[in-house]
Every structure is written in C-alpha cells, then in structure tokens.
C-alpha cells in the first residue's frame, strides 16, 4: 500500500441500518415492520425463512430491534464519534414504516420525516455525506397482512410513492441512494428480505421469484423518480456479494459454482443491464415458474438502470457436488457454503478471505462496468472489556487491514470504487442472530443479548486505527 493511495474524495465511513440501530420501534407514530417480529434465539432463523407464527410481537419473547442501541435518541452523540474518526460518509436506511406507518397512508408521518431531516442535518454539519438505503429488510407489517407483501403488485406502487416522498423531502441533503439492501437475500431469508410468509404447501419458489420481479420493477421506478427529482444524485442497487469457489476442478463443481453466483447476479443483471438474462429465463422454464408481468415492465426495467453497484462482502463461499464434501458445511453461512480448507473462520463460522474481496470486486466490475460502492464489510466477534475499560480488538483490525489492502489492489486492477463504509462502525443488533454479542463496531455499546446494559458508548482500539486509515486516505494501515 506504500506505493499508492486511494482516489481523492474516496468515501471512507461506516454503515448501519434503521432496524438494527434506531430502536424506538413504535415512537412518534412509527408502524410495525418485519424485523420488529424477529426475536432472539433459535426461532429467529426459522421466522426469517418465512415460517412466521404471528404478525404481532408475542408475550415472553425478547425483540432486540425494539430498543436496539437507541440511535433514535443518541444519534448526535454517535455522529460526533463518527466525525472524530473522520468519516466522509455514513450509510443509513430510512424505516419505511416511520414515513408511512401502514405503508399505504394517505399522507406521510411528519414526525418520521422530521427525524431523518434532523439526522441528515447532523451528518452534513459534521461533513459526513448521508448514503441512504430505501428498504433495508423493512416492510410495514400492514402490507404483509393485507397484501401478502411483495408477492402482490400493489407494493410496487406503494414503494414508488414512498420513494418519491423521501426523494422530494431530502433532495437537497442526500446525493447517494440505494433501493433494496442485499436484494438477493429474498431467496435465502424471504421474510427478512421481502416480508414473505409461506402457508403450508405453498410453492415457495414461485412466490419468491414473483416477489423478486415486483421488487425489481419497484427498484427501476425508484431509479426513475430519483433521476427526475434529484438530477445530480446517484442511485444504486445492492447485493450480498462473495464469489463461489468450486471445491475442486471437477467441471461439475465449476459449473455449480457458476450457477450459485448467478442466483445473486440475476438481480443485479436486471437492475444494471435492464433485462432478464437468458439463464434466468431458462431457470423459470426448467422450474415451471410463471412470472406475471405487466406490458410496460420490460420498458421500465430497460430504461431505468442503476448508476452504481453497492455490495456487502464478508466472506467467499465454496460449493461442491460431492455428497461427502457437502456434509462439511460451515456454520452460520446463509448461502450454504462448504468448508474451504485453505481459509480460517470467524467465531460465527464465516470464512475470512481478503483475497476473495479483490476477486469479487473484479468480477462485479468486469460484469457490469459501473462504479462499485463497498457498503458493508467487517468482522463480527466477541469483544471483552478489560478491567482498565479497554477493548483490544486486534482481530478486527487485522481483518479490516487485510481487506482494505485487497480493495486497494482491486482499484489498481482498474476497478472503480466510490467508497468503503464498513459494517457496524458502532455495535448494533446482528441481523442474522439478533445478538449484541456479535459485535462489529469501532465503538463498544454496553448492551447484552438480553437487552441489559447502560448503552454507554466506548472507543475500542480499532477506533484510532480507523481514524488513521481515513486521515491517510488508506496509506497508514498500521496500528
């Protein structure tokens, strides 16, 4: 890294999500949303897959999103810490149900709009650009009850109304937008990704891909609205990225790795290129899926493609066609990866693969030839506070350092990258597990898995490390 620096105006920063940080889950008129129904514990993953026992919070369950880290009331304090680190950007999401509590209200909720006005003003005051996701695992529960969520075309137009509302309100404050967070998660955790609830005997694949089509059309209409309302803004899509390696050079493994990658690229192919790829059409045919489309959909998708590709990268994945190899699956990986013998794993079973970051960035840029924005990357780990009140998170520093090096190498490869907002710059609720124990931040939050703690903020060792990274524009990666 000593021989070059990152581009001028590179957007260093961090990323959080409304439902994992804000809390205040019913305050100031906010409606219930999907993540408000996800408890901690073993039930959480089953619910995220669409097996939902209730569309109201149940007595006796702990729902970590209800208070989270109380960013709703503490954002000024937290932004001051981000500014101290030198953040150029903070990626946040707007909670749809703060703006339209039922998702179909006749007028938006002014208290919700004002909260984000105040949040964006505070960021701008500290020279931090807001990078805003419209839908980060966030569907108003009323739309699930009434329409079955994204399986229903109605949500396309409700989402368009929501998008136009916030574009109009914040057009002078926000210049970087994204439509759906990790849109490909709809196929893996469909309730989390799209609010889908499955009845017994339902054709899940048919429902998922119909919902996917509706999200893709809604995304294109949001792009159209953004370009019309905020001509000087950029709006992107976002996927949970991480290339699949074949476990061996057996052509069957290689082909399967290509197919697994296509599960995710399918969404971005449509959002970036403006049409369904041929392999997707064959997939629909082979699986007897009939995707209902309106006559205007092809033109909508074709004419309103995204300006950049946002992506998260935590780990690579590995796939095999060998039944014996498949028995050795990594724990915690949503994408069903087999264990890669060349890579170490995090405490939650995610492979640690910095080189895979460079590979993934190159593959995305080769495929789309549009700017990339790394909007999530980080290490979830258990952090201990010493008797002296310190948090020495050397493993996190090592993880981030090695990934930033590979990001720099990707830029030297010719990959255009707008910025890097590492995931969870302050400890927040884990989306996958609902835990606070799984920490990502440079800032420790005193809260445990049961919701106990003072919520006091404390700088970790990585705080000053990342501050120096930003100050040097990526040249100084020492501790």
From TrEMBL:
Task: Using the record, list the residue span of the signal peptide; answer none if the entry has no such feature.
Answer: none
Q: Which EC number(s) are documented for this chain?
A: 3.2.1.86
For this protein, the parts annotated as crossing the membrane are none
Q: Name one GO molecular function term.
A: 6-phospho-beta-glucosidase activity
Q: What class of enzyme is it?
A: hydrolase
User: Per UniProt, which keywords does this protein have?
Assistant: Glycosidase, Hydrolase
Q: Which InterPro entries match?
A: GH, GH_1_N_CS, Glyco_hydro_1, Glyco_hydro_1_AS
Q: Which residues form the active site?
A: 376 (nucleophile)
PANTHER family, alphabetically? 6-PHOSPHO-BETA-GLUCOSIDASE (PTHR10353:SF296), GLYCOSYL HYDROLASE (PTHR10353)
| Family statement | Belongs to the glycosyl hydrolase 1 family.
- What NCBIfam families does this protein map onto? PRK09593.1, PRK09852.1
Q: What is this protein called?
A: 6-phospho-beta-glucosidase
């Amino acid at each position: 890294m000593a021989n070059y620096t990152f581009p001028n105006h590179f957007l260093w920063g961090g990323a959080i999500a409304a439902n994992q940080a804000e809390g205040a889950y019913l305050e100031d008129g906010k409606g219930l949303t999907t993540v408000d129904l996800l408890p901690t514990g073993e039930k959480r993953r089953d619910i995220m897959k669409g097996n939902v026992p209730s569309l109201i919070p149940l007595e006796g369950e702990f729902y970590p999103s209800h208070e989270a880290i109380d960013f709703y009331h503490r954002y000024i304090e937290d932004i001051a810490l981000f500014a101290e680190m030198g953040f150029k950007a903070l990626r946040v999401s707007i909670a749809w149900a703060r703006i339209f509590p039922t998702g179909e209200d006749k007028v938006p909720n002014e208290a919700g709009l004002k909260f984000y006005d105040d949040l964006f003003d505070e960021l701008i005051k500290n020279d931090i650009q807001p990078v805003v996701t419209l839908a980060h695992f966030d569907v108003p529960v009323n739309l699930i009850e009434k329409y079955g969520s994204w399986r229903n075309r109605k949500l396309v137009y409700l989402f368009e109304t929501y998008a136009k509302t916030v574009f109009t309100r914040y057009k002078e404050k926000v210049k970087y937008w994204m439509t759906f967070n990790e849109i490909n998660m709809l196929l893996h955790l469909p309730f989390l990704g799209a609010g889908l609830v499955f009845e017994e005997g339902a054709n899940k694949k048919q429902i998922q891909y119909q919902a996917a089509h509706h999200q893709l059309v809604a995304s294109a209409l949001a792009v159209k609205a953004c370009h019309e309302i905020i001509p000087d803004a950029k709006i992107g899509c976002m996927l949970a990225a991480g290339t699949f390696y074949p476990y061996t050079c057996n052509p069957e493994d290689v082909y399967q790795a290509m197919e697994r990658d296509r599960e995710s690229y399918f969404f971005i192919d449509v959002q970036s290129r403006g049409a369904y790829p041929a392999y997707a059409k064959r997939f629909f045919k082979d699986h007897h899926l009939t995707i209902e489309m309106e006559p205007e959909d092809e033109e909508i998708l074709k004419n309103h493609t995204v300006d950049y590709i946002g992506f998260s990268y935590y780990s690579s994945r590995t796939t095999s066609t060998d039944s014996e190899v498949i028995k050795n699956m990594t724990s915690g990986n949503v994408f069903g990866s087999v264990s890669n013998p060349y890579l170490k794993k995090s405490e939650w079973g995610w492979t640690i693969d910095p080189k895979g970051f460079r590979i993934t960035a190159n593959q995305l840029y080769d495929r789309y030839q549009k700017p990339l924005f790394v909007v999530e990357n980080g290490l979830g780990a258990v952090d201990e506070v010493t008797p002296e009140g310190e948090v020495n998170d050397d493993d996190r520093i090592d993880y981030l350092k090695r990934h930033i090096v590979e990001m720099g190498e990707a830029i030297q490869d010719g990959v255009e990258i707008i910025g890097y907002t590492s995931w969870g710059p302050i400890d927040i609720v884990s989306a996958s597990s609902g835990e606070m124990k799984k920490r990502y931040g440079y800032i420790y939050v005193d809260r445990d898995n049961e919701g106990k703690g003072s919520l006091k903020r404390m700088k970790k060792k990585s705080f000053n490390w990342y501050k120096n990274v930003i100050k040097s524009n990526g040249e100084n990666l020492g501790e």
